[in-house]
Amino acid sequence: MAKAAKTRKNPALRLALVRQIHVYIGVLIAPSVIFFAVSGALQLFSLHESHGDYQAPALIQAMASVHKDQVIRIKAPDAGDAGAGHLHPGAGEQADGDHHHDDGPKASTLALKVFFLAVAAGLAVSTLLGLWMALLYNRRKAVVWGLLVVGVVAPVVVLLA
User: Fold this and answer.
1) At what angle do helices 11-44 and 141-160 cross, to 10 degrees?
2) What is the pLDDT of residue 120?
3) Residue 64: its H or E element
4) Which of 37, 39, 139, 147 could join 67 in a cystine, given CB atoms 3.0 to 4.6 angstroms apart?
5) 125: DSSP letter
6) Average pLDDT of every residue of the chain
7) Any long-range contacts for 126-130 (C-beta under 8 Å, 24+ apart)?
8) How far apart, in whole angstroms, are the C-alpha atoms of residue 149 and residue 28?
9) Could you give the CA distance from residue 137 to residue 133 in angstroms, rounded to a whole number?
10) Bridge partners of 51?
11) Residue 17 in 3-state DSSP?
């Protein structure tokens, strides 16, 4: 109770508490932020879908299905279905004429994709730097490491359950 009263009266203590909460939340969600940045970046250029002669790697398909549908689904390549590429019926289907991989994107679309790729890379790098700072400079290293482990293990356990 005395600490709560001191925190209210001293703005520096309040800021330190807010900063510590920020670190804990950041470390807990950092693995998911990095995952979504990487998997989203792969989806920008449709690397999660097989099309034409390109066969999407199973790992990228699995990452995309977790990113989009919160499940792991991998489409096996069919001999007569090399261009379909969707992980399951209804996932990301588009009306005819909306987007064709062979046509290529317009310059403005490509520029936006490149910008979003830079955003995803910046988000991943910034998150990694935040993790590095939290692990290196926090006094409660055991708590930080514990939250990081929970942030990595909890989604995997729920996904595989």
Assistant:
1) 40
2) 97
3) helix 58-69
4) 39
5) H
6) 84
7) 127/26, 127/30, 127/33, 127/34, 127/37, 128/30, 128/34, 130/26, 130/27, 130/30
8) 8
9) 6
10) 54
11) helix
Q: Residue 54 forms beta bridges with which residues?
A: 51
Computed over its alpha carbons, how large is the radius of gyration of the chain? Answer: 21
70-80 average pLDDT score: 72
Structure tokens at 45: 């250029």
Whole-angstrom distance, CA of residue 78 vs CA of residue 85: 10
Task: At 154, list the tokens.
Answer: 């909890």
**Is the whole model's pTM more than 0.90, yes or no?**
no
Give residue-wise pLDDT tens across range 6-27: 656 888 899 999 999 999 999 9
SS3 51: strand
Residue 33 tokens, joined: 């932020």
CA distances from 22 to 31, 78, 84, 134, 158 (A): 15, 48, 44, 10, 24
* CB 130, CB 26: distance < 8 Å: yes
- Strand, coil or helix: what is 54? strand
Cβ atoms of 40 and 118 within 8 Å: the answer is no
